[in-house]
Amino acid sequence: MPDKLHIILTGEQSDTRSFVVSISAIKVGLFASLIAVVVLIVSSVAGFHFVRENGRIKTSMARLSNELRASRSWNNEFKERLTEEVSLRESRQQDKLGELIKQNSAKQAMLNKALADLKNKSRSIEAILRVVGVKIKVKSSSKNSGGPFIPLSSNTYKDLSFKVDNYLDAIRAIPLGPPVWGTITSKYGRRIDPINHKPAFHSGLDIRQKRGTVVMCTAAGTVIAQGFSRGNGNYVFIKHAMDFETKYLHMEKTLVKKGQKVKRGQVIGLLGNTGRSTGPHLHYEIVYKGRTVNPLKFVRIARYISKRSGRS
Ligand SMILES: [Zn+2]
Fold first, then answer.
1. How far is the CA of 225 from the centre of ligand 1 (A)?
2. Is residue 102 located within the same domain as residue 140?
3. Cα 127 → chain centroid
4. Ligand 1 centroid to 236 CA: how many Å?
5. Lowest mean pLDDT, pick from 7-16, 34-43, 47-56, 299-308
6. pLDDT above 80: residue 259
């Protein structure tokens, strides 16, 4: 293998030229050309790829940008809707709250009215109790029984209700109203005795009425005595709560037995003229804490009640 290559170039008119090129130089040149071609091909392919990729990225970017824009607009729309919904709900809640406040104040007004009514009633009962001279100690509600004495403020519905309950118990026990409708012929107190015409103390009230008229019990209680005596004639004694007793004398006939429970207004006998009596009448007596009291206020209580209630 020769080391050098002799290249002769001949033209038609020009001189003949010859070159001597070493084989290794040709090899280097061919190798360099090959590298250059490879680099060219690779760079062309890469360039083409880059261009294509770039286009794809651009398209993607544009799509993403559109999507972002759409998303933003949707977002704004959603925000608006949300704001509308929230404000609508808020206004509804405000309405509901207003309605509740209105209802509540109506209830409060009703409660206040009930409280005022109860206070008035309590005062009416107090007036009645004052008239008949009965004092009631309302100690404390059952809730704090056994503890220290707590005076009731009477400002709360519960306290007032408790107080009125106490009063009502008292009113049930107190003999109220007349045992028989008729004419009062002799009052309670000092008088000239109608039989022996000497000064004496009349411990009850005499009510004149026809014989056989029904005599009624003036409060709930228990018959503690019933019978006949020369002085009292046919009589009935009834024990009530709160240390009250009532006595009914000179009756034609008694219609209850000892130990019997009686209600207010229950017929206990018939008016008569038995015992130490000068004519048909009922001797009616009220005993409070072991002493006789003037029954007139108790009998005429209706008058006091109407007077009191008419004022309030
Ligand atoms: Zn009498």
1. 18
2. no
3. 31
4. 14
5. 299-308
6. yes
| pTM for the model | 0.61
Centre of ligand 1 to C-alpha 174, Å, is 21
The Å distance, Cα 215 to ligand 1 centre, comes to: 15
Say how many Å lie between the CA of residue 281 and the centre of ligand 1.
Answer: 8
Mean pLDDT of 32-49: 93
State mean pLDDT over 166-190: 89
Please give the average per-residue pLDDT across 157-165, as a whole number: 80
* Dist. CA 236–CA 228, nearest whole Å: 9
82 Cα to the center of ligand 1, angstroms: 91
CA of 304 to the centre of ligand 1 (A): 24
DSSP-assigned states of every residue in 82-134: HHHHHHHHHHHHHHHHHHHHHHHHHHHHHHHHHHHHHHHHHHHHHHHHHHHT-
Helix (H, G, I), strand (E, B) or coil at 177: coil
User: How far apart are the CA of 188 and the centre of ligand 1, in A?
Assistant: 8
Q: Are 160 and 218 found together in one domain?
A: no
- Domain enclosing residue 64, as ranges: 1-112
Domain count, the chain: 3
Mean pLDDT of 171-186: 91
219 and 283 both lie in a single domain: yes
**What does the pLDDT read at residue 31?**
93
Q: How confident is the model at residue 272 (pLDDT cuts 50, 70, 90)?
A: very high
- As a whole number of Å, the CA-based R_g of the chain is 60
Q: Are 153 and 224 contained in the same domain?
A: no
Cα 257 to ligand 1 centre (Å):
23
